C-alpha cells in the first residue's frame, strides 16, 4: 500500500464515523441497564405506579406515578416545588412498565436533529440521554406548584416522555400516560394487586350494602366527572393542565 493511500483511508473512515455518530436514530452506543429489582426498588427506565390513599379507593384507575433513571432510582413529582429522588411517595411500587430507550430521540445538538418531529420535539426540550431528559424535567418541576387537577405526577412523567420524544411522539399528557401504565403495566407481585384493589372492593361492597343502587350511580357520576375534567383540560382547553 502506498503512503499516500493511508491518509485518504483515514479521512474516509473519520467521515464515516462522524456521519454514524451524528445520524438520528442510532442507539448502538446505549450502555446496558440492570434488570428490574423490586426488592431493591430499582426500576431502570420504567414508568411506575402505586395507589393513592382514599382517592384510589374511589377511583382505582388513579394513582401516583414516577419514572426511573437508568440506574433504577425513581423520580416522582411529590409536592409543590419538589421532585423526590429514590424515595417514592405513597408506598411501595405496585405496577411498572419498562420503556425501550431505542424508541427515544437523542439528538447531540439541534444541527443534527433530523427526526420527523424535530420542530415539535425542540419546543418540548431535547436531551442527549435518558437521564439528561429526566434531569431537565426535574429542574422544570422544581418550580411548579402541585395540584391533583392541573399539575400532578402524571404531568411530570409526560414532560419527561416529551423531552425524549418517546415512541416518536411529543404529545404525551396525563391521559395517555395513565392509559399506558394501566393497560401495559405489570404488577410487581400478588400482594401489590391485593393492596391496590382490595380497598376499592371493600368500599364498593360497603356502599352497596348501605345505600344500594344509588351508591353505584353516584360512583359512576363521580368517575364521569373526574375523567371528563381531564379530557376537557387536556384536549379542549389549552394550558389548563400542564
UniProtKB/TrEMBL annotation:
Residues 1-31 are annotated as: Disordered. Keywords: Membrane, Transmembrane, Transmembrane helix. It comes from the Eukaryota. GO terms for biological process: regulation of ethylene-activated signaling pathway; response to ethylene. The gene is LOC109717236. InterPro entries: TMEM222/RTE1. Pfam families: RTE1 (PF05608). This is Protein REVERSION-TO-ETHYLENE SENSITIVITY1. The keyword Transmembrane helix applies. The keyword Transferase does not apply. One of its GO terms (cellular component) is Golgi apparatus. The chain crosses the membrane at residues 193-211, 217-237. PANTHER family: PROTEIN REVERSION-TO-ETHYLENE SENSITIVITY1 (PTHR20921:SF7), TRANSMEMBRANE PROTEIN 222 (PTHR20921).
Amino acid at each position: 500500500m502506498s503512503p499516500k493511500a493511508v491518509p485518504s483511508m483515514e479521512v474516509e473512515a473519520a467521515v464515516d464515523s462522524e456521519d454514524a455518530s451524528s445520524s438520528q436514530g442510532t442507539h448502538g452506543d446505549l450502555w446496558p441497564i440492570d434488570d428490574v429489582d423490586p426488592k431493591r426498588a430499582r426500576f431502570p427506565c420504567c414508568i411506575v405506579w402505586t395507589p393513592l390513599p382514599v382517592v384510589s379507593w374511589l377511583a382505582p384507575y388513579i394513582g401516583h406515578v414516577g419514572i426511573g433513571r437508568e440506574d433504577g432510582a425513581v423520580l416522582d413529582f411529590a409536592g409543590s416545588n419538589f421532585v423526590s429522588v429514590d424515595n417514592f411517595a405513597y408506598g411501595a411500587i405496585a405496577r411498572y412498565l419498562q420503556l425501550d430507550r431505542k424508541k427515544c430521540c437523542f439528538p447531540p445538538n439541534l444541527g443534527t436533529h433530523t427526526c420527523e418531529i424535530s420542530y415539535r420535539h425542540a419546543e418540548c426540550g431535547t436531551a442527549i440521554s435518558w437521564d439528561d431528559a429526566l434531569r431537565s424535567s426535574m429542574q422544570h418541576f422544581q418550580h411548579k406548584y402541585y395540584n391533583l387537577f392541573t399539575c400532578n405526577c402524571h404531568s411530570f412523567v409526560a414532560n419527561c416522555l416529551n423531552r425524549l420524544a418517546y415512541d416518536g411522539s411529543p404529545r404525551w399528557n396525563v391521559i395517555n400516560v395513565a392509559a399506558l401504565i394501566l393497560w401495559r403495566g405489570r404488577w410487581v407481585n400478588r400482594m401489590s394487586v391485593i393492596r391496590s384493589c382490595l380497598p376499592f372492593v371493600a368500599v364498593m361492597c360497603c356502599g352497596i350494602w348501605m345505600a344500594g343502587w344509588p351508591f353505584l350511580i353516584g360512583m359512576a357520576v363521580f368517575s364521569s366527572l373526574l375523567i371528563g375534567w381531564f379530557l376537557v383540560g387536556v384536549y379542549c382547553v389549552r394550558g389548563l393542565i400542564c
